[in-house]
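Weekly puzzle thread! Below is a chain. First person to post its structure in token form gets bragging rights.
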Amino acid sequence: MQIFILRHGEAEPREARKQDSTRALTSEGKSDVRRVLRLARGSSVAPGCIFSSSLLRARQTAAVAAKVFNVKNVVETKSLLPGASPQAMWKELIALRHVEQVLVAGHEPHLSHLIRYLLEAPVAVDLKKGALVRIDCAGLHGPPRGVLKWMLTPRVVRGR
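Winning reply:
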């Protein structure tokens, strides 16, 4: 299984009067995510399913991905909320034995924890907003035994 991990794009700043869960993507955040995903699409990325956190900025990021990849199956899951265990998301992923490529859209630091879990390695990951990581997992029984294939960031895609 190829797992694509996508951090939400740039979101509105935190405000004392606004709930964190309702912070929306900025127009630049949407554009950055779209550019990264279009480049990935050109490299044969075609997820059969997209998982998303229920927070607005992640849902909007997943919606951009669904449009770029023409994916109808977008699933909101508590396993991508900040504070969820990486093992919970792994259980959802391995339930999709028939899907070769899956994209998950969420938040930091949860996604870095998921990456470490999938790689079974104590690595530090600087996952920028709008970045996309590909991890391949050979077996869907037992531990993930993932292999990091690549990471795209909005800055790399823009050529800066």
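Puzzle host: Confirmed. Bonus trivia for everyone else. The chain has a mean pLDDT of 92.
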